[in-house]
Amino acid sequence: MNGLEVVKILLIDRDEASSNQIALRLQSMGYDVMVETSREIALEMVGKQDFKIVIADPSPLREPRQFFTALRNASKSYPYIIMLNHEKPENILKSGANKFINKPVDPSVLEKIILEATDLLQLRSKLSDIKTDYPSERGIISKSAFNQIFLSCVERADRHGEPTFCLFIKVENYRQLNADSSDAANLATAKLAHELSATRRQSDILGQLDEAEYAVLFLLISSEGEPHEASLRFMDSLSSVKGFKDRPELEVVINLKLVELPSGATLLDKSFSAQ
Question: How confident is the model at residue 55 (pLDDT cuts 50, 70, 90)?
């Protein structure tokens, strides 16, 4: 389960045949699934148990946001909400959900979205773990500070129906590099930090998440394609600059991953060898 403990899912649907089919699929993937037909009882369950993912068909409600907001308020955590319905709303985020699945449910679509949700849960868990923090310097903020802004962006996306985008950049083979030569690993990570700080825009929020991993929150997005273009700008800069290694036989692999919030969808995932 991607490094997480078994994830509990609450499925809220009056259509028992459909919900049982979905539950069996999710259980086969290793999830702990509970099914409830009543919205009122479901709200009580969310308040008593730690459901990380909620899948709900809000029918016959025409405006599901109030119900989804009540689910979030009742929960001890901030559940990932997947809306089930025969008709897709004009704006999923404004409906209060993270993602939408059309009925009848396509098992492959269900699996893809559940894996995205699990990845986002894992990311939130990693960001909230500040046993090891990093100081703010050279335009790079600490992990703890980045986590607060990250959570605010997720909540803002829910409130205003506007997605946020986060680019994760890391030295993918850092552990192997560090095992071979700690000096080489330190050079690669220092160079990465320097180039990220130099490439980011003033509106970009850059934070350090791990020894060799950083993240950039793209704020003030003016067009749909801008996050992807910004990610390619970082990739072009990092792939063209020299100084990541001092010996030609060494390989330094950089990975960039662009994630949409609050859906958790991966929009870009590229790795390349740095010079």
Answer: very high
Contact assessment for residue 204 and residue 234, using Cβ atoms and an 8 Å cutoff: no
Say if CB 78 and CB 72 are below 8 A apart: yes
The radius of gyration of the chain from alpha carbons, rounded to an integer in Å, stands at: 21
The pLDDT tens digits for 249-258 are: 899 999 999 9
Among 127, 144, 174, the domain-final residue is 127
Establish if 69 belongs to a structural domain.
yes
Q: Which structure tokens are listed for 171? A: 């030295």
**Containing structural domain, residue 68:** 8-127
- CA–CA gap between residue 255 and residue 239 (Å, rounded): 11
Q: Which of 91, 107, 127 is the last residue of a domain?
A: 127
Residue with tokens 């990570």: 189
Q: Quote the CA–CA distance of 188 and 78 in Å, as a whole number.
A: 36
